[in-house]
Design goal:
With 99 residues, the protein is mainly alpha-helical. It is built from 5 helices and 2 strands; from the N terminus they run αβαβααα. α1 runs parallel beside α2.
C-alpha cells in the first residue's frame, strides 16, 4: 500500500469528523506507509498521536480483534441495510448524527 493512499484516507477521516481529531491515538503496524514522512507530517498537522506495537508481537491486537469480530457479527451481519452509507453511520455513530 502506498503512503499517499493512507494519507488520503486519514485526511478524509479528519474531514468526516469536522477536523476535531486532536489527541486521537492512531495505532498501526510497522508498514512503510505508516512509517513514512508524509504520514507522520499529516498526523502532526492534525495533532494525532501515532502508536505502533512491537515488531512480531500480535498482543496489541489481541484485545481489539474479538471486539470488532463481535461488532461485525452482531451489527452488520444480522440485518439488511438500505445503503452502504447507512450501515457505515450505524457502525461508526460518531461519523454522523443524521439518520
Amino acid at each position: 500500500m502506498r503512503a499517499d493512499l493512507v494519507v488520503g484516507a486519514l485526511e478524509a477521516a479528519v474531514a468526516a469528523h469536522g477536523g476535531d481529531v486532536a489527541d486521537v491515538i492512531f495505532h498501526t503496524d510497522h508498514g512503510t506507509q505508516h512509517t513514512s514522512g508524509a504520514f507522520a507530517a499529516v498526523c502532526r498537522r492534525h495533532g494525532i498521536r501515532r502508536s505502533m506495537g512491537r515488531v512480531g508481537s500480535s498482543c496489541d491486537n489481541a484485545l481489539v480483534e474479538p471486539f470488532f469480530q463481535g461488532l461485525k457479527r452482531e451489527l452488520t451481519h444480522q440485518r439488511r441495510w438500505a445503503t452502504a452509507a447507512r450501515r457505515c453511520r450505524t457502525s461508526h455513530p460518531s461519523s454522523s448524527n443524521s439518520g
